From TrEMBL:
Natural source organism: Cannabis sativa (Hemp)
Keyword Repeat: yes
Ranges in coiled-coil conformation: none
Annotated Low complexity bias: 313-325
Source superkingdom: Eukaryota
Region (Disordered): 312-334
InterPro entries named among the record's database cross-references: Leu-rich_rpt, Leu-rich_rpt_typical-subtyp, LRR-SigEffector_domain, LRR_dom_sf
Keywords associated with the record: Leucine-rich repeat, Repeat
Keyword GTP-binding (UniProt): no
Protein's name according to its UniProt entry: Uncharacterized protein
Amino acid sequence: MMYEKQHVQMRMDLIRNNNKSGSFSNMKKEEKKTSIEEERFEIVDFSGLSLETLPSPSLNLGIVSKLDLSNNNLQIIPESLIARLLNVVILDVHSNQLRSLPNSIGCLSKLKVLNVSGNLIESLPKTIENCRSLEDLNANFNQLRKLPDTIGFELTNLKKLSVNSNKLVFLPYSISHLTNLRILDARLNCLRSLPEDLENLINLETLNVSQNFQYLETLPYSVGLLLSLVELDISYNKITSLPDSIGCLRKLQTLCVDGNPLVSPPMEVFEQGLHAVKEYMSDRMNNGGASNGSKSKKSSWVGRLVKYGTFNGRSQKTSSSSGAGSRHRHSHDGEAFMPEYRTIDGIASPSYLGMFSPRRLFSSPRHSFSR
């Protein structure tokens, strides 16, 4: 323990000395530097020191712009320490043994990147909604059972939300108000449904809700109003049919549907590639091919799709390539269909990898589609 404290102090001294020696030379090189205050901001790295507790810092925490506490054995982060990080932009505490985050995290008004992956966190404090500058939230590999109900109303600058490998049963309705969100990764959870009104996610490019296994059975019709969507991964769920509105996703280039008991579209349509799937779904909308009990719901969406300019009531006849028997299927315009499954990214604490069974982390052998 004495060695750890000395190591921490030596690292702190090095940071401080580097900051002092570099600031004068930088001022000579760039006389019109933005401000002296910016040069005083420091990066503090305590990662990989096997720390169980944090030492009392001799540094003024108010000038820290990045704090890295990752890859330690921390079980708690003091409220008082977080409250003093008034100018922190990046906070990285991944791969520790944290069961919660301090409520004082709401004081970090300038925080843009927060990485809490690879811990044992069961819920995020509601005060996180006060971090309104937050752009990237990584909470992968935790024990999350829910997200704060109003998180989407407050974190309006969020561009990437990663909550894979948790125990989430649903995503709060407010998620649909994250108008700047570009990536939503909620794979490997226990999701039973997605919010109905997704159309406000006008900048969403990647949606991954794969490997919710027996829980996720349907997709909302509003998926067809995700105007910027490029990649949709719904593989390894229990989805039997795709919503017809998917035929209106003009920018969609990658659709992953492996491991679902899909009936609609039928297998022969999938074998022809993504263009054929889009055309089939568009035809169903045009012809009113709704099952009993869902026609009124589908017709109510047609007006919205026309309003958003994604559906014109006519089938778009385009040529598509047929790639039967191939796992990689490409249409003539370069769209990819069902690429090889990618492994989960994110870092988990080695001590707690055992909480995720191999069957969850590494999907079973690929099968085309089961009926």
